[in-house]
Write a structure and sequence with these properties.
alpha/beta, Alpha-D-Glucose-1,6-Bisphosphate, Chain A, domain 3, TATA-Binding Protein, six-stranded mixed beta sheet, 18 helices, 23 strands, globular, phosphopentomutase activity
């Protein structure tokens, strides 16, 4: 506690503004628990940048922690581009509380360091920021967002000149630069002439490329015949999704007006996360009224999407992230095949915790499949590392997808166009996304996944998560649901152990706190602490064969029973 008090007392010095000093003193005098939570560590970069609760302290999002990040990045940019006459940075922000204020703070720090800033004057979705960095020749990009985290959070994502998020070793070099700074070294007084507001010039070219990448040869009448219901869940995608769908030729678009106004309080949802079934409940109700074929919702910064579609009984059914990813990948592969563009020099990418069906589906088209750690920064890195290959598309189980490489992050806007294009074509053939998915299960095997995310908040929660991963490593599973474990991959040590062949080998992927078990019958169980939220996540995948579509319901019940038994065994 002595160290925490020392850190807190520093925040009472004259460098910090009066309100910050007052709030810090209040924690010292009246709230020792929150004082500890606010100062026990420096807020760190995780899977999707830096996210945290807003407030005073080194473990909180505020003008000083973000200012220090920005000062460190400014120093790093100057070292990285010593001969560049004008270093440029693009900055965007979402609907969260204080995002606009914090974006201006970040812009001022860059400008104070002589760096040119392209600042969006209004909230914009994250994929547009990734696109802008690459399209407008910026060396770096920042977006102020906490994605789908609760309302008290905000965050800070950093992109590099290829449009992808930071990856090792660059992220570690920047973190070292940041950690070497004292708060009083932050230059907050920006040069206004170095800050340029942008909007339409980026919007228009991005929307054109989004439509070009997401549409194929579906007739105009089929697009017009698709009935779409859309909700932005109080987020930024309301700015671009409706005009993009209009440009693409989709004329029947019903918007959930109660959720159309950007609002960082997210008043109509428990969580603004399309992974949560409840998030799309209002959209589903509107879809029932309007007779919609497809329901789509996005998270606050417009990079994830959730989808619900009509099934064979005309009921609206939610798809999970793995199912959406499989369908989009199939559609892209099929279109590339029809256009005779598959030359053997293409690839599809996903992540180590996503469905194994992605690999099987991709390779059935003779296309290379590549896999990385959780987070789209790793897919962007695969694109950068393999310029000899053309990237078709890729995604991960957490409701994100990337169509082509013009954006180097998950992109809900273009994915929505692709999903609607696919739904329109299938509807014209008398099919649905659900019926097509079942056909793919017959062809490639039926895979069912389930995610459990245990929330463990604060310092105690962090210790509990840490201990859980230690216990899993000290007491490894030898059986799962009566099936022998034949392979264990430990990404923290970069070592895999194959028990059938009695040998170990190195994993050629950067280290991460992830543990994955595989059984003799293809069951897969992964455990990892979230890199963006106070959670530990367990990913379960089971599979079986499906001879006919008619067998699906029975096989689904079997798979669900198996998953529930595994959860009971693991005590989660």
């Amino acid at each position: 506690m002595e160290d925490i008090l020392k850190k807190a007392n520093y925040w009472l010095s004259s460098f910090f503004d009066e309100q910050t000093q007052k709030d810090t003193q209040n924690l010292i005098d009246h709230d020792p628990k929150n004082l500890e939570e606010s100062f026990y560590q420096n807020l760190a970069f995780g899977t999707g940048g830096m996210r945290g609760i807003m407030g005073v302290g080194t473990n909180r999002i505020n003008k000083y922690t973000l200012g220090k990040n920005t000062q460190g990045i400014s120093n790093y940019l100057k070292k990285s581009f010593p001969d560049k006459k004008e270093i440029k940075v693009a900055i965007a922000y979402d609907c969260r509380k204080n995002s606009d204020i914090l974006a201006r703070v970040v812009a001022n720090v860059f400008a104070a360091n002589g760096i040119k800033v392209l600042l969006f004057s209004e909230l914009r979705p994250t994929p547009l920021l990734s696109y802008t960095v690459k399209k407008f020749g910026c060396q770096c990009g920042i977006v102020l967002t906490a994605s789908h985290n609760p309302p008290e959070y905000n965050g800070y994502k950093v992109y590099w000149e290829d449009g992808g998020q930071l990856v090792p070793p660059q992220d570690e070099e920047i973190i070292a630069e940041i950690e070497a700074l004292q708060f009083d070294e932050i230059q907050f007084k920006g040069k206004e002439d170095l800050i340029q507001l942008i909007d339409q010039e980026a919007d228009q070219v991005y929307m054109e490329e989004s439509v070009a990448n997401g549409t194929f040869n579906v007739p105009a009448k089929d697009r017009e015949n698709l009935n779409i219901c859309f909700t932005s869940l109080h987020g930024t995608s309301i700015k671009l999704v409706p005009p993009i769908l209009e440009k693409a030729g989709f004329t029947q678009v019903h918007i959930v007006e109660e959720q159309a106004e950007p609002d960082g309080n997210f008043p109509t949802v428990k969580s603004p996360n399309p992974e949560e079934p409840q998030a799309l409940s209002m959209a589903i109700e509107l879809a029932k009224q309007k007779g919609s074929d497809i329901v789509i919702g996005t998270d606050p910064d417009g990079d994830r999407l959730g989808i619900a579609v009509r099934n064979e009984n005309n009921e609206i059914e939610l798809l999970n992230g793995n199912q959406t990813m499989v369908l989009m990948t199939w559609f892209l592969l099929e279109k590339w095949k029809q256009k005779e563009q598959l030359t053997g020099k293409e690839f599809v990418a996903s992540t180590i915790v996503s469905t194994p069906m992605m690999k099987i589906l991709t390779e059935s088209y003779g296309v290379t499949y590549k896999e990385g750690l959780t987070g789209f920064k790793w897919i962007a890195k695969l694109i950068k590392d393999h310029p000899e290959l053309n990237f078709i598309g890729g995604g991960e189980e957490s409701f994100g997808y990337m169509v082509g490489d013009f954006v180097r992050d998950k992109d809900a806007n273009t994915s929505i166009v692709l999903a609607c294009e696919m739904a329109a074509e299938l509807k014209a053939k008398g099919k649905t996304l659900i019926s097509k998915l079942k056909e793919l299960y017959v062809e490639h095997g039926y895979y069912q996944e389930h995610l459990v995310a245990l929330v463990k908040k604060g310092l105690d929660g962090a210790e509990e998560i840490k201990q859980k991963m230690i216990d899993l490593r000290k007491n490894p599973l030898s059986e799962i649901n009566g099936e022998k474990v034949v392979l264990v991959e430990d990404y923290a040590t970069s070592e895999a152990t194959n028990f059938q062949e009695n040998k170990s080998y190195s994993i050629n992927i950067p280290k991460s706190n992830v543990l994955i078990y595989y059984t003799e019958k293809g069951t897969k169980v992964a455990a990892r602490p979230s890199g963006t939220e106070p959670k530990i996540k367990f990913y379960i995948s089971v599979n079986t064969t499906l001879q006919t579509v008619e067998e699906f319901s029975a096989k689904k019940v079997e798979a669900e029973k198996k998953i529930n038994h595994i959860l009971e065994e693991m005590g989660v």
